[in-house]
Amino acid sequence: MGEAIMERTCVFLKPDGVKRKLIGRIMERFEERGLRIIGLKMMQFNEQLVREHYAHLVDKPFFKDLQKFIMSSPVVIMVLEGEDAVNVVLGMCGPTDPKKALSGTIRGDFAISVQENIIHRSDSKEVAKQEMARFFKESELFHY
Known about the structure:
Layout: E1 6-13, H1 15-19, H2 23-32, E2 36-43, H3 47-53, H4 63-70, E3 75-83, H5 85-93, H6 106-110, E4 119-121, H7 125-135
Antiparallel strand pairs: 1-3, 1-4, 2-3
C-alpha cells in the first residue's frame, strides 16, 4: 500500500463563531480528527473581498444581509491538511442549515441559523485551491 495523499482545504470561522468565542473549540475538533493546521490568520472582510468570495450570491435578495454579517467582525481563516481533507471537513461541519445538521457536527452543535452558521468550508478540491489562493500566500502555509 502506498502512502496516503495529503489534501488541503480552506475553512473560516464566521463572525458569529468569533464573537461567541468558539475559535479554540472548533480548531481543537479539526486537530483531534487528525487534520493539521498549516495556515492560520485573522482578518476583516471588506466589500471587495465579500463580492469576490460570494460572487455566486451577489444577485440574491439576501446578499446585503450576508455582506453586513460577514463584515461585522474579523473572521479566522485556516488551511487544513490531511487525508481526504475536503470530505472530512464537509462531514465535520454538517449542512448549511443547522436544523438539518446532526448533533456532533460543528453546525449541529453551535449554529443558530442558515446565515449564522458558524463556519465556511470549501466544498470541493477546486474551490479549496481557489480559496487558499484568495486568502494565503504560499509562504504563509507551513509544512511540518
